[in-house]
Write a structure and sequence with these properties.
It is built from four helices and five strands. The chain is α/β, with parallel strands linked by helices. The mean pLDDT is 88.
Length: 107
């Protein structure tokens, strides 16, 4: 797992120039969105995915104690930010955590 550098960029704000190793790789539109996506529960979910390497969402649901529909929604949202990869086979979806450590860059 790699460390993910996150930043806040409101829609319409100009893009900032690269700032070396602390250049954000994931952007959130607000602090509230970042707090929701990187909540303690979601960070715990990423660690479960990293450590247990579940082969299906059903297996991950059993490990995390969440319902599959709720889990699926959360993972699709996290996939949109590049934090999770969802590999689809015939009738199965395998989650992979792409980041489990975060560095938040403000200002």
């Amino acid at each position: 797992m790699k460390r993910c550098v996150v930043g806040i960029r409101r829609p319409g704000d100009p893009e900032t120039a690269a700032r070396g190793k602390h250049n954000p790789t994931v952007w959130f539109p607000s602090m509230a969105t970042m707090a929701a996506v990187l909540s303690e529960d979601n960070q715990a979910l990423l660690r479960i995915i990293r450590d247990a390497k579940p082969k299906t969402l059903t297996e991950l649901a059993a490990l995390s104690g969440r319902q599959v529909p709720n889990l699926s929604r959360t993972l699709r949202m996290m996939e949109g930010y590049g934090l999770v990869s969802l590999s689809k086979a015939v009738r199965e979806t395998r989650p992979t955590a792409l980041a489990t450590e975060f560095l938040v860059v403000l200002g």
